[in-house]
Specification:
This protein has about 450 residues and is of the alpha+beta class. It has ten helices and eleven strands. The strands form two sheets. It has a six-stranded antiparallel beta sheet with strand order 1-2-11-10-7-8. The protein has a five-stranded antiparallel beta sheet with strand order 3-4-5-6-9, with helices on one face. It is rod-shaped.
């Protein structure tokens, strides 16, 4: 290497060292650069080994300083990155914290709305429970409020009959209520049929009927009383019930002469009217099927639409100390007797559940009958199942007994009493009452 080359190299290294020292001074805040050996170029290079070793050592020191500065810079960059990450996390947490109260308020609002809804459901369920409980034991509760003497199940309100709020609907509809009766010497008869509470609320029609008729073909004066109750949801049950009563009178008149001999048999006679009554009811069943002719499968009558429970009573008229009666029927009707202030069931067409569930026209051959006698002061009540339940109930039965014992009620008052606003699980109420006063001269006057 020539001396010129050495000179240029030393000059470059000197300038570079001064620049590095100036940079370090600026970073450390020093305003006056430190003294440094100045290499003066001479006309001739030193060419000594000591000069070369000094320049190399200084260069290595500068390199170490630069490396340390870069390492410091990288450390600060890492620290800055860490701080920035912490700041970002803090900002995110701050935003989340700012949103937290709103979310809590929304959840609280939703919880309060649900609470109000649940409170409403609880109130509704409580009302439904109370209504169900009231319907289940309404009769006992109302009867418990009656006065001890001369009271009624609903107090003074029972003197006013229940008034329907809707007219009955449907093609088979009939009047809401009907009443009939007569004073036949010592035998006084009253009959009434009223629509049930449920049917009135739902606008359905009455499905029960009654009939009072003389059987003129029987030589001994005889009264026929009949009560028919159609199935609750039968499409033509009311027409079927009415037809059953009317055709029963026609069928008994057809066999009147023979029936009279069997009905008022002589002592020791074993004539049994069951066969004749079965034949009569088969004729009634044929007449009932005409109501739905062509409406059933294959054009056959629809028995399900005309099912009827039928109960009848044949009573001998005239003055008598032992009046004869013949009760008969199919289904769940009943004949009740009031004697000495106590109600008792003296005849039911069926003893078992299957027999009580039998209906015309299908069950015509299953007719049952029973003979009985009454004495002066007795009261017979031929009734549908719903009113029979009321008479059998201790409280309601006592109320009806107090109203009917030994009386000849007017038709209007009798209808009001049958229509007394007492809750009961039954449907329509239909009853025919017969007061036996024995000798006509002993009969009390008609009530005012």
């Amino acid at each position: 290497m020539t001396s010129t080359t050495w000179l240029i190299t030393l000059l470059v290294l000197s300038l570079a060292g001064n620049a590095v020292l100036a940079l370090r001074a600026s970073r450390t805040g020093r305003t006056t650069p430190p003294s440094a050996p100045v290499v003066t170029a001479s006309a001739e290079p030193s060419g000594t080994d000591d000069g070369r070793r000094c320049s190399t050592a200084e260069w290595e020191a500068v390199r170490r300083e630069v490396t340390a500065a870069h390492e410091l810079l990288r450390g600060r960059d890492l620290e800055l990155a860490r701080v920035r990450a912490l700041l970002k996390d803090a900002r995110e947490k701050s935003a989340t914290a700012a949103l937290q109260p709103a979310g809590v308020r929304q959840e609280l609002h939703a919880a309060r709305q649900r609470l109000r809804a649940l409170e409403g459901e609880v109130r509704d369920l409580a009302r439904e429970r109370d209504d169900a409980r009231s319907d289940a034991d309404g009769l006992e509760r109302r009867l418990a409020e009656a006065e001890t003497e001369g009271g009624t199940p609903l107090g003074p309100d029972a003197l006013s009959p229940a008034i329907p709020r809707r007219l009955p609907l449907g093609r088979d509809a009939t009047s809401d209520s009907s009443v009939d009766g007569a004073d036949l010497g010592p035998l006084v008869v009253r009959a009434a049929s009223v629509r049930g509470d449920r049917a009135r609320r739902e606008g359905e029609h009455r499905r029960e009927a009654f009939l009072l008729r003389f059987v003129e073909e029987i030589r001994t004066p005889t009264l026929l009383s009949a009560v028919a109750a159609g199935v609750p949801h039968g499409r033509w049950s009311q027409s079927a019930a009415d037809r059953a009563c009317r055709n029963l009178a026609a069928q008994l008149a057809r066999y009147g002469d023979t029936l009279g001999h069997q009905l008022y048999r002589t002592a020791g006679s074993d004539d049994d009217p069951t066969g004749l009554l079965r034949t009569a009811l088969q004729g009634v069943a044929h007449s009932m099927r005409l109501v739905t002719r062509g409406e059933g499968p294959g054009g056959e009558p629809d028995d399900a639409a005309i099912g009827v429970a039928l109960t009848g009573l044949l009573s001998r008229l005239g003055d008598s100390r032992q009046r004869e009666h013949l009760a008969f029927g199919i289904g769940d009707g009943a004949l009740m007797m009031l004697r000495d202030g106590v109600w008792s069931s003296v005849f039911t067409p069926g003893d078992t559940a299957a027999e009580r569930g039998s209906l015309l026209p299908a069950a015509a051959p299953r007719v049952r009958c029973a003979r009985l006698t009454t004495r002066p002061g007795d009261l017979l009540a031929l009734c549908s199942s719903s009113l029979a339940e009321l008479l059998a109930h201790p409280g309601a039965g006592d109320w009806f007994a107090a109203r009917w014992a030994g009386r000849r009620p007017h038709l209007t008052s009798f209808l009001s009493e049958v229509n007394v606003p007492v809750r009961s699980p039954g449907g329509d109420r239909t009853v025919v009452c017969l007061w036996d006063f024995g000798d006509a001269r002993d009969a009390p006057p008609t009530d005012s």
